[in-house]
Amino acid sequence: MSQTYNSYGRQMTQEEILSGAHRAWVGGMWDELGRLQLDFMMQNGLQPSHNLLDVGCGALRGGLKFIEYLEPAKYFGIDINESLIKAGVHELEQGRLTAKSPNLLVDDNFGFYRFDTKFDFAIAQSVFTHLPMNHIIRCLVNMSAVLKPEGVFFATYFEAPSSACLEPISHVPGGIVTSFDKDPFHYSNGEFSWMAQTAGLSMVPIGDWGHPRDQRMLAFKVGTGRS
Asked: What pTM did the predictor assign?
């Protein structure tokens, strides 16, 4: 998958990983955003026995919290960047969590099927904010094949007030400026509804969930046929 639309493909060095530079490179707010994700998922039904898929898990900012909460081998993290997965393994070792046996995978095409597992829940924190629409649709199509019938996929995004919103938007709080056609991206709820329907999913906007940079939340479920 091409990485011309963002810089996420850059590989961190071992020295950077050992220094903890990956924590800042994935956006900082390491403890705050990690805890926010776990709290949100628990409030929406995540139990220790559930299978959880973390899309764009990176260096496990949220993953560490999930792995500690979930039963062994119930966490599944996937990311395009091999060096960030290595940084996540380093974090696991530092946090003495390797015995929880998380499942980690480097994949550049949203190959969720490679886990050979059906998921109760999935989350993509600050993934769709960096992707053009065609890649989001690929993610949703592949997700529809691995969610359990009652499963839910939560994903964050920067909200636009209307579809094809060509003007830049400055988001408060956080001060992030988003665009229609370059990273970071913004999308309307209508655009996400269309993408979901195309992928065989239904979509419900959740909206504000307390994100410090004004990312909003969506919930996707299996439930509609493709048009």
From this structure: 0.92
